[in-house]
Amino acid sequence: MKKHHILPLFLGLFTLQTAFAQQELLLHQQSDLWHANAVNPAFFPSEKRFVIGGPSFGLDAAHSGDITYNDLLREQGDRTVLDVGNAINKLEPNNDVYFDQRFEIASAGVRLGSMFLQAGYAVRVNTAINYPKALAELFWYGNGPFVGQTLEIGPAINTANWNELYLGLGKRFGENLTIGARAKFLSGVGAVQSDENRRKISALTSNDIYQLSLTTDYAFHSSSIVSSIDTAGLGFDLSLNEIKNDFAANGGWAFDLGLQLKAGDRLTLSASVLDLGGSIAWKKNANYYRSQGTYAYNGIGIPGTDILNGTTDSLDFDAALDSLNDVLNFQKTDSEFTTELPMRIYVGGSFKLTERWVLGAVLHHFNSERRKATSVGASVHWSPLKWLTVGGMYSINDRSAANIGLSIVAKPGPLQLFILSDNALNAVTPYGSAAVNFRFGGAVVF
What we know:
- The protein has 446 residues and is mainly β.
- It has a single domain (6-445), classed as Porin, CATH 2.40.160.
- It contains seven helices and 23 strands.
- Strands 1-4-5-7-8-12-13-17-18-19-20-21-22-23 form a 14-stranded antiparallel barrel. It has a two-stranded antiparallel ribbon with strand order 2-3. Strands 10-11 form a two-stranded antiparallel ribbon.
- β4 (94-112) and β5 (115-132) form a beta hairpin.
- The longest helix has 10 residues, at 6-15.
- The model is unreliable at 1-21 and 228-243 (pLDDT under 50).
């Protein structure tokens, strides 16, 4: 029997602590920072001609509800032990896990009179998971507590990893208006995409001898990540591919548009639309996996507590689980599919009170097939030194009405160094938070 993978996969639902939309409100308020160009192609450091962007890493991540990594642990004497049951009690009937990661590997910009060019390379990961509380309960407690009940346990998993090569152009019209546009070639690395029309995995425990019936009509697409599925393990044992996709094998395009308007000496307005029309067509190593059937067997199910405590008889347990292969036997067929990138919109403004103080506001809207979300923030930035700016922000999003962001930007000589977070408390205590957001990086500007 192969190694069981369902436990780390299940725990990963909690430890990912992820968010599907990378809002980056504070980054949009730093228009003179080179890496702010990522959220508005009309941004370019003022009075600078050449830019070499160093690596920059950004993460926006959350689990729905109030569950945190620390909810999985509890103190028992002088030990810290795993207590998944405590976390399960805090779950909602349906739970969402979101993750958006952007890693800017390299970038560059050059100003040519009233125009500027920009180019770069980034790696992105985008994940959304929806899973029912019943899935966690069945795994952890087994099917014993659910006699006579039908549990719907089918999760939806949508994740994509891709390379992004981009080239952009900006132009200043007169003294006040700048417009920027950027084209991005997307090279798909790997993806898993659930079939929203086939999410059914039902578990029914009969009133006699705890007979468990599983009924499935469940399917998903995959490229490069999953090569085969053998359910002889814990019912869902994935065989993972090494990355085999060529750079241009699974390609697509996305476009960014932005503008910046100086409405007088103190007020600056801006707006941008990102990943417009973005999609990746998965053609190489692209497959469709479907499980459909009904099967009944006698047993007590999948008690996660017994697995961790080592109290399950391995022979009986393995024999019972092997029969799951007859139900969750995924059939694999070649099938191309498409991943749609979520579109992001920013609208913001800043007002220069004095040479040292700047007030700002920003709205961010995220729109995808599966989720829409809007967040707004108000900020203040103070420059105690010519080369140092610190900022704070209060923002509201669909998860919380009380987010405090902080930013530090240092510009010693030609260097630009920054670290910022739209929710600073969560960034420094991620294990005690249901969401985390931060970005850091650097550049050299001349």
